[in-house]
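Case study B.
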Amino acid sequence: MTAPLLEVDGLRKYFPLRHAFWSRAGGHYVRGVDGVSFAVPRGSSLGIAGESGCGKTTLARLLVRLLTATEGSIRFDGVDVGTLAGARLLAFRRQAQMMFQNPYEAINPRFTIGRALLEPLSIHRIGTPDDRMDRVTAALAQVQLSPPGTFVDAFPHQLSGGQLQRVGLARALLVDPIFLIADEPVSMLDVSIRAGILNLMKEITRTRRLTTVYISHDLALVRYVCDTTLIMYLGTVAEIGPTPEVLTRAKHPYTRLLLAAAPVPDPAYRPPEIASTELVPTAIGPARGCPFVDRCPEAMPVCRTTAPPAMLVGPGHHAACHLYV
Amino acid sequence: MPPVLAVQDLTVEYRLGRGTRRAVEGVTLEVRPGEILGLVGESGCGKTTLGRAIIRVLPRNARIAGGRLLFEGVDLAALGEAQMREYRWRKIAMVPQASMDSLDPVYRLGDQFVEVLTVTGGLSRAAARERAVALCDYVGLDRQRLVSFPHELSGGMRQRAAIAMALALHPRLVLADEPVTALDVVVQHHVLRRLRGLTGELGLSVVLITHDISVIAQTCDRMAVMYAGTIVEIGTTAEVFAGPAHPYTMGLQNSFPNLVRPQETLIPIEGSPPDLIDPPPGCRFAPRCPFAVDRCRVEPPALRELAPGRWTACHRAEEAADLRAQSKDARRWRVAVS
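Model:
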């Protein structure tokens, strides 16, 4: 068995609060990502799910080094991403590509699609100026925008959201990455269009053996596309394991809460009762105990004092919860 | 029991630089007492326009070009603005899209309630304060929050406040446009539960406008599916989900992931909705429909009642059972757009 493509160990990202009042009160910060460890095997797909503000987008940005970590390490293909600089950082950026949530903001509105797609090729000096346009049209054809010629000269506002998200995918694939991270790739799109993009991403990542990370708030989407599921809560990993394990035999009370609350397109389905409060927790200040304790229906005294370790609860399945210690 | 609202053959037009767009065309539907009617469709299908037409808050370049809006025997579409004001908020209220951001940021929540209740509702300040507390209880918002400013509330609390505001003057009908779309699932679950509870407690009818069929499935008694400005299917939520009669509804079902019973493959609906300035001559779904025949491309299908309360606008509605079986085949949908 080969080493995982991505190994994340004890990753933290703290954002200082710059407000004068707080800084006088002494070194307060928001714990965006607070001690996260996991590995992504080559060619597999990981889904990171959680509520808004849980740190999933911060984690995504750390993984492709759009942000630098406060603590901990990310090893990509055996190399510590945090130490990269210059030509090696550029090479990493070519290998690790990102797809963004809002395609209307991710593509320069003043550029034609052709120009937007040529840019990464020239930055990474891929191909000769002559054959670059051929690569662009091939990439457009691969994401099923046909005939590609009509899209090359179009501006983003002339395309639908679904078409533009396909351009986003084409742009990520153009530089031949080995790792793709997609932050809510279909949440801005209409329902009937989403399935097409997801199927395309599944197909392309399978044939190219890409390692992928999907960030999503939608567990049904994660269920559909991801081999492994990671549930985040307030910057920490609540539960991680093979997708069917985590989503059908959830162990962490937070995962159970998310599953019970998720709407299901079936009027005959009766969701289980939900005990949790709606309390909105904060990630400001020092951490103590389990981050989920105030919303947890099964909280015990130990949960208030000690952070729960990640316990093995099934094959390849870990939950950070005192119930299983 | 007579319906609370009967929309009859309603058409709404937008005047645009490059022509007239019929965002809603020939829509007929009823809202019954105490029910939640789901209005589902994709962006641009006219669901928001229909909601805004019912309460007559259309943008300046839009107008009701035909049809009737019968509410308690009165045609709202024929009322002047002054008369309409007697209905708006008092009998029909709206929770607009992104309403959690519609609260005034510089006033405390309680003051905003009191203003609506005294100015529009004509209550004394003391009575208004009492009513504000009752409204908080209705929607499950902590009374202590009345002294808070909107920025001190979470998204879920603000959404509850916006729903409470709509209930302020005892309306019979509430139009809720994507009321939970921006909320996390747990909060979404609680807000929808509360909304359901209110229909029973207050005898309220709700039109829930959303793009999310899972929200409809868990919340609505009946549902109407909109496509390109027209209603394509109406029925009880249970019936429509168990046996969609319009190919568009079948397609929506095929493309929507199910967490509890995950599908092997999701099947997208290829293509995109038509430009409503120049819609296709026949059925508006025909260009994307895998089952379209020649007739579909020339003659718009009428909304017909197939069984009591079960309406569909499809020429091939009688073959629905057969089409449903075929609709599970992904290849059928791939060849649709040529």
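DSSP finds 13 helices and twelve strands in chain A. The remaining cases will be described in the next quarterly update.
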